[in-house]
Every structure is written in structure tokens, then in C-alpha cells.
Write a structure and sequence with these properties.
12 helices, Phosphorylase Kinase, domain 1, 2 domains, six-stranded antiparallel sheet, 11 strands, single chain, 338 residues
């Protein structure tokens, strides 16, 4: 007797999605369903005459149903409050979340509106694009201040951003014990710095969680934000630090970070302590990303997470520490600001 072999991550058939899933929506008959990328989830571009949609098929056990519903309710809240986002589209039965039975188990799926326009390139109008990104980030924070939902979801806290990532990466660094010791010591230093601010000095609220600078499209002066898969309640300082981290990774921190802050603070004020604490959260973001990569190796593969990968990722941390975390002057400034 032949039985199916266990699978951890399959790729849904685009033809089957057209035949069995998309008819559940009040949209024109699709002409194509194209896999854009495999990542945290599978993302498909759905074409239907002159319309475009995004179909996300969540990985099995990546997000719980309540966590997905949290994300969708946040998007609908932002949409109602005038923020341009890629919003969920209900099925004919009124539900926003569908399911398919994949070889590995149940996978949730959601159809979203397509974010029109072009991806921000930051090439021709670098400061302007960062400035506009900061303004809309502030609008997201302002609009979500009143967001409430009964659906539980993980928080963007130190457990999520430091503890779990360290647990995920440790098995891949057994042959680099000095680097592992360095990361552990730095993580503890970062944890202590954040806890000593004190935590009560940091603003908390709904966060996108992945505002690295490219999860938005621009058309006719309107920025439409998408990919809220990493959202949750957390520190607003961390949310804006992700943009600073993204700019730093491109070697453009000096050009983009001040422009982003200028745009943000023109719409919504953020405390001095929150802005200064991004020194810590940029490094924390790097640790989180390493944990995200290593923790998903079962589905993404491990070959690319070789020594050159860890050299690059750890070099980022060492250089950042040298520039921003080696003296106590920022700690005293933050305490005085608080």
C-alpha cells in the first residue's frame, strides 16, 4: 500500500486556486494566477480582466486563525480611518478567511486588494520617498491608536524579538562559538538597555512590524501599504527602527532616516526617548531577522545560511555596536529625556 509521504511545505497549484478557490469571491473570472514568491507565505498575483488582486496562502501552522483574523481586522480598521492599505476581500459567504487542505495540513488563505503603483525605488527621489513613507507610517500609528479586537496575537516584545530568535539560530552556530557568545552577550546588553529605559517610557500600540521601506506602492501621490503579516502590539520605537535598519542595510541611513523622521513628526509627535531608543531596536531587528531565517530553514533550506551569511549578519551587528552602543552617553540622554 502506497501512502503519501509527510510534507512540511507544498506549493499550491495555481490552476487549482483558479478552479476551486477564486470562484468563492465576487470578482470577474480570473485570467491568470501567478506565484510571485515563496516566503513567510505563498503570494499569488491574480489577474481578472483589468483588475488585480493578491492571494496569500499562509503556510501551515505559521499563523493561527485568531492571529490571521487580528491582522485582517487591523487592516479593515485602517481602511475605515482613511489609510490606504491592501485590504482583505470577503468571500461570497461573507467570511474573509478560506482554507485548503494541503499535503502538510490546513492552510489559510485571504484575497487582498492590489496595491496600485510602483515600488518605492529611493533612487531618483530618495529623501522625498523616505519623507512620504514617514508621513504614512505616522498615519498608521495615529489611526490604529483606537484599534481593538478580541482576537489574540503575539506581541512584538523582547520574547518575540530576542529570546525566540536566539533559540532558533543557536544550532547553526555550534561551529562558531565565539560569534555565538558575542550574539548572546549583545542580546543581553540590548535587553537590559531597553528594560532600563524604563519600558514605561516607550510608547506602545499597533505596529506594522516590517516597515523596512518597500512594503508600499506609490501611485498619484498615494502610498498604499501592504504585507502586515508581522504586525502586532509593540513599541512604536521598534516599528520606526525597522525603517532605519532597512536604510542602514542599503548604506543610506544618513539620507533616508532624517527624512523619514521629518515626515513622521509632521503628522504625529513621537517622544525623544522613542526616537533615541531606535539605536537599540535596529540591532534587535537584526537579531530577529537572523532568528527568522534560521527558524524557517526547514521550509526555505539551509544552504544559503552559510559562513558568508553569518559573516555579513554579524558584521552588521559589530559595526552598529561600535557606532551606537559602546558608550553610556545615549543611556544618560535617554534617562534625562524620560
Amino acid at each position: 500500500m502506497i501512502r503519501s509521504f509527510p510534507v512540511s511545505y507544498s506549493t499550491p497549484s495555481a490552476h487549482a486556486l483558479i478552479a476551486d478557490v477564486l470562484p468563492n469571491y465576487e470578482i470577474l473570472p480570473p485570467t491568470a494566477c501567478l506565484l510571485l514568491h515563496r516566503g513567510l507565505n505563498d503570494t499569488f498575483l491574480v489577474l481578472a480582466k483589468d483588475d488585480k488582486y493578491i492571494l496569500r496562502v499562509y503556510r501551515h501552522q505559521w499563523r493561527s486563525l485568531p492571529a490571521v483574523l487580528y491582522e485582517l481586522e487591523a487592516l479593515l480598521h485602517l481602511q475605515r480611518h482613511g489609510v490606504s492599505v491592501s485590504a482583505p476581500i470577503p468571500m461570497k459567504n461573507g467570511a474573509f478567511v478560506g482554507t485548503i487542505m494541503a499535503p502538510e495540513g490546513v492552510r489559510y488563505l485571504v484575497l487582498f486588494t492590489h496595491a496600485p503603483g510602483r515600488e518605492l525605488s529611493y533612487s531618483a527621489e530618495e529623501e522625498r520617498d523616505a519623507y512620504e513613507f514617514g508621513k504614512v507610517t505616522a498615519r498608521i500609528h495615529a489611526a490604529s491608536d483606537a484599534f481593538h479586537t478580541s482576537h489574540p496575537r503575539f506581541a512584538l516584545d523582547l520574547e518575540h524579538l530576542l529570546t525566540k530568535p536566539l533559540q532558533a539560530m543557536q544550532p547553526l552556530l555550534t561551529h562558531r562559538l565565539s560569534d555565538w557568545d558575542y550574539i548572546v552577550q549583545l542580546a543581553e546588553k540590548l535587553r537590559q538597555h531597553v528594560q532600563d529605559l524604563p519600558l514605561s517610557a516607550l510608547e506602545t500600540g499597533f505596529c506594522h512590524g516590517d516597515l523596512h521601506g518597500w512594503n508600499a506602492h506609490l501611485q498619484d501621490q498615494t502610498l498604499t501599504f501592504f504585507d502586515f503579516d508581522c504586525c502586532g502590539m509593540g513599541w512604536r520605537s521598534y516599528d520606526i527602527a525597522v525603517f532605519r535598519w532597512g536604510a542602514r542595510g542599503k548604506g543610506k541611513e544618513n539620507e533616508r532616516w532624517p527624512a523619514f523622521l521629518r515626515g513622521y513628526t509632521e503628522v504625529r509627535q513621537l517622544g525623544t526617548v522613542d526616537i533615541q531608543a531606535t539605536d537599540y531596536f535596529v540591532a534587535i531587528r537584526q537579531v530577529w531577522l537572523m532568528g527568522l531565517h534560521t527558524g524557517n530553514g526547514q521550509d526555505w533550506g539551509y544552504a544559503w545560511m552559510d559562513d558568508s551569511y553569518f559573516d555579513q549578519m554579524i558584521q552588521f551587528l559589530r559595526k552598529w555596536e561600535t557606532e551606537y552602543l559602546t558608550t553610556t552617553w545615549r543611556e544618560s540622554n535617554i534617562h534625562s529625556a524620560g
